[in-house]
Amino acid sequence: MKAPNVFLLLLITVFSIFQSAQSQDESGFISLDCGLIPINTTYVERSTNITYISDVSYIDSGVARRINKTLFTQFQQQTWELRSFPEGQRNCYNFNLTKNSKYLIRGTFLYGNYDDLNQLPSFDLYIGATKWTSVSIQRVASASIHEIIHVLTQDRLQVCLVKTGETTPFISSLELRPLNNNSYVTQSGSLMLVSRVYFPPTDPTPSFIRYDKDIHDRMWAPYSDDKTMSLSTNLPVDTNNLYNVPQLAMKTVLIPINASQTLNLGWTLNDISAQSHIYMHFAEIQNFQANEIREFDITYNGGLRWFSFFRPEKLSLTTIFNPRAVSSSNGKFNFSFAMTGNSTLPPLINALEIYKVLDFLQLETDQNEVSAMMNIKNTYGLSRKISWQGDVCAPLFYRWEGLNCSYPDSDPPFVISLNLTASELTGTITPEIFKLTKLRELDLSKNDLSGEIPAFFADMKLLTFINLSGNPKLNRTVPGSLQQRIESKSLTLLL
């Protein structure tokens, strides 16, 4: 079946509108104006009343820059500044959150010729060790917006920008919005936004909906075509379900201009192998005359059943979605809403969300080992190590410099070798090293370490080699338990 009018999806990568972010507040929102300095700077964006904070506390690399001032009047304030990453292949934002929590994560990118090069950047965006998407800036004065619904696998979230060519990665704002864990449920993976639309009248010119009209700060784009029309009501709609679709969206509906015709909506995914989740939101907004009935069947791709004999509830939100991901052999989806034999009124829909599944097949490094390595990094002030960004071990080609890791088939990676020779280390040998429980080799040579040789080395059963040479301030007295391992030849120590 061929859709009569392909659904003109407003792909999030080409929205040329203003964007906003949010600070961590009573809603649990985190909104970073990337590049905003100093650290304690905040402001309230006027059109949304969203408070923005500096990103300085969440990242230790990059350079704050500002777009061309001639663009300020076209975009909201959070896009005026940005953070550019001229050094390193991977640069990451770090958030301490709660494992298994669900978040809407949104990155906004407005180039604005901040570097006076007129060179449109392209780079990759990662969540932890998994590629989220590619960012490709199409125009100097257009915002590229990418959004994903993601469940945290650890108490830590890392959002990374990865250099893939000659141009420099950057980011304008980064937003995290907590969601109900019982909403947007998948069997696996996270949900990358393809489109989120509602159906308002075209006169007056409709606007995008977001916070505070949407309590979750989702962005809803207006949609219309030449074979449909929109109806609206001033009456309130009960939107109290897991999805809390905003009132402005639920007070309008899309119906076919010819009431006897089928309502058709279609779209195409660039990735024909992609799995999708679709969320359709309905509410009846009209008063019926005697004997009037609205009932319709929903099918897709030539007659596959989606839902049958559906009657929207009066002024009350019903959400229909697929519990299992669906796919199409050619990447095309065509949905038809057809009146049943009982119906006297045409089908309708109030709002629609389309997502593509992103499976996280690359396991992240064991959380305890990540915590230990982050503490080692902070203890010795190793933020200058530009490669020490993102996941410690994964993916393999971005692992931290000086580390070797093991990659079991079904378990998280872990550190087996740590080489910090000539890294300008000072102070004592941190006990955080003991938390690297699978460590086999340790090289701390040619530094300025002081204090005692730790006895905990003897309890690291897999550790077979330690190099502490070239630390003139270090006390060379070897603890008895460690000496026993040396004499048994289960460990080699260089002093």
Give an overview in words.
The chain is mainly β and 495 residues long. The chain has three domains: 12-179, Jelly Rolls; 192-358, Jelly Rolls; 367-494, Leucine-rich repeat, LRR (right-handed beta-alpha superhelix) (Alpha-Beta Horseshoe). It has three helices and 31 strands. It has helices at 247-250, 367-379, 480-487; strands spanning 30-33, 42-45, 50-54, 63-66, 81-84, 90-96, 102-110, 122-127, 130-136, 143-151, 156-163, 170-171, 173-179, 190-198, 221-222, 228-232, 252-256, 263-268, 276-282, 296-300, 304-310, 318-321, 332-339, 351-358, 403-406, 414-419, 426-427, 441-443, 448-449, 465-467, 492-494. The strands form seven sheets. Strands 1, 2, 3, 7, 10, 13, 14, 15, 19, 22 and 24 form an eleven-stranded mixed beta sheet that branches. The protein has a five-stranded mixed beta sheet with strand order 25-26-28-30-31, with no helix packed on it. It is elongated. Residues 1-23 have low confidence and may be disordered.
